[in-house]
Amino acid sequence: MRKLIAAAGALALAVTMSACSSTSGGTDNAGGDKGATGSEVGVVTWWSAGSEKEGFDALAEVFKKQHPEVKLVKQSESGGGGTNAKQKLAANLAAKNPPDTYQGHAGAELSADIAAGYLEDVSALYDEFKLRDAFPKDLVDRLTVDGKIYSVPSNIHRANVVWANVEVMKKAGLDPNTPPADIKGWIADMEKLKAAGVQYPITVGATWTQLELLETVLISDLGVEKYNGLMDGKTDWAGPEVKTALEDYAKIIEFTDPALYSEDWEPAMKPIIDGKSAYNVMGDWAPPAFDNANMKWGTDYVTFPVPGNQGVFDFLADSFTLPVGAKHPDGTKAWLDTISSKEGQIAFNVAKGSIPSRSDLSEEELSKFSDYQKSAMESFGKDTIVSSIAHGAALPLAATEKMKEALGKFMANKDVAGLQTELAAAAALK
User: Fold this and answer.
1) pLDDT (tens digit per residue) in 128-185
2) Do the Cβ atoms of 361 and 294 come closer than 8 Å?
3) Are 369 and 354 in contact (CB under 8 A)?
């Protein structure tokens, strides 16, 4: 497990996290009663359903034990991988009406918030909570901007995972334990599934899930170096290699169900759970959906990197911030203490399906995690790390939002050339 720890320093991690939710979402009290000081913390999050809600609820229980004097108020904005939440939060921050803390993806998304002066430096909390010892040094270094740190990560997720129904794959004579080596081989398998009577071999949901699928195709067809080059300008979004990847993406989309294009990830995953489709590409917050259906990993369903992504860990992480002007900064500090603590990270990640960002868990503590999570830890410890576009680790929020808009148009017109032009324009946004 120590390989997991050492490898975190190699993260292609930009420093910031994404803006997300709004104080206007639904609220529920998850902590104890207000203490004598009237302390509370309003937590803006899109963790409102499924394994995400279970993870938050587990965190809330730890928070209640660690900080019984602070009232926890959950301010939820559901859906869209945070898309809905981010839109409302941006307006609140601009209006100088920040929440006490908000969830964000680790990565380039938060660069605009830092530049606008919306976030406090939380470097002192890293010293107070001894996070410089708990998190790998290189990870802390990469979270540092001009000597300051603006976020505290609660977990690590992997985005480039295929969730596959074993029985459906076998209908087409496919070996669930031997996935194809590249995207073209995967497309060939989808053709076999179609010929075997599987109407929609692969599913995809709303635009953020479409972007997640697209980034994995880009990784496969371009390779790690050129994929990373899309972010630093060394690879041309308008070039022929990207065009080839987009053509492969378009072929994959032909095997999807258009009725799901406006749905969130869970409805898009349901056909795989129900045995109607073979594949879905999704982050590893998915296991509880299979657990709830009494499906066993390795028997009823399997996971593998998107073909062509072997040896690559497509990284994202959830984190929380301390906004400038937060009404209850002491409550926020208590929340950041809990999400970064051993107890908080174990409770949250066991429920959510992600892996801890702390590097100091004992073997006994790591044993609490599922077989899938242990496999993710192993992969994280040895694979090449790249940053997710869809989840804010690779590009600023303005760029990813425009890319999602472009994909929405593409699903209607199937214009590859137009999609490439719009993606190139989006990537130039800051």
Assistant:
1) 999 999 986 756 776 777 888 899 999 999 999 999 999 999 999 999 999 999 999 9
2) no
3) no
Q: For residues 239 and 404, what is the distance between their CA atoms, to the nearest angstrom?
A: 20
Residue 164 phi, psi (nearest 5)? -130, 135
Give how far Cα 301 sits from Cα of 8, 272, 283, 289, 291, Å.
28, 9, 15, 12, 11
Beta carbons of 20 and 107 less than 8 angstroms apart: no
CA dihedral of residues 385, 389, 393, 397 (deg, nearest 10): 170
Taking 90 as the threshold, does the pLDDT of residue 93 lie above it?
yes
Maximum alpha-carbon separation in the chain: 68
The pLDDT of residue 397: 87
Angle between helices 183-195 and 240-253 (to 10 degrees): 20
312's torsion region: left (phi>0), alpha (psi -120 to 50) or beta? beta
Q: How many angstroms separate the Cα of 71 from the Cα of each of 21, 27, 37?
A: 19, 12, 11
- CATH match for 161-308+396-427 among 3.90.226.10, 3.30.70.360, 3.40.190.10, 3.90.1150.10: 3.40.190.10
> How many whole angstroms separate alpha carbon 210 and alpha carbon 207?
5
Q: What phi and psi, each to the nearest 5 degrees, are found at residue 202?
A: -135, 150
Whose CA is closest to 21, among 129, 97, 122?
97
Measure the CA–CA gap between 396 and 398, rounded to whole angstroms: 6
The tokens for 399 are 């760029």
Please list the residues that pair with 318 across neighbouring strands.
105
| Local structure of 305: helix, strand or coil | strand
The Cα 416–Cα 422 span in angstroms is 10
CA–CA gap between residue 7 and residue 202 (Å, rounded) = 32
Full-model pTM: 0.82
Average pLDDT of the residues in 259-288? 95
Tell me, rounded to whole angstroms, the distance of Cα 83 from its chain centroid: 12
Architecture of domain 12-157+317-387: 3-Layer(aba) Sandwich (3.40)
